[in-house]
Design brief:
The protein has 143 residues and is α+β, with helices and mostly antiparallel strands. Helix content is 20%, strand content 41%. It has one helix spanning 2-30, and strands at 37-45, 50-58, 65-73, 85-89, 95-102, 107-116, 135-142. The strands form 2 sheets. It has a 4-stranded antiparallel beta sheet, with no helix packed on it. A 3-stranded antiparallel beta sheet has the order 1-2-5, with no helix packed on it. It is elongated. The model has no long low-confidence stretch (mean pLDDT 84).
Amino acid sequence: MYSLHLLLRASPAALLLILCLQLGTTKAQEDTRQLMTMDLQMQIAEASEEATVVLKVSTELRECMVIKSYLLSNIRIEGSFNYKYTSCLCDSHPRSFFWDLQTNSTVRITAVVDVIRELGICPNDWAVIPIKANRFSITKSLP
């Protein structure tokens, strides 16, 4: 009976502690950062049917990531379109990638960014690989 009495006397303090922990957890859950932000732009020169595809990639993570960026399309395109770029992406250093292509028809282009594990890209080989997702993409049509 004495232990039950101690349990009942401690309950207001325990409830206050639980309330404080719950408020702290809610605050921590609100602090979400964007893992990857992508912007795909296409600049077209009408006379020559040449286009430049520009992919801008950034992150809000504090840690750096090794990324590989490349393009896919619904039709076969030759030249620099097939180049793959590997670089280190950090919150203080967003990246821009450029591809030049020629096409005389409408094409759907998908820019893909994979977070990979590769040494010798980020300084001191300090990089993270997200658990939630490691492939990101954005698609646009080139008229």
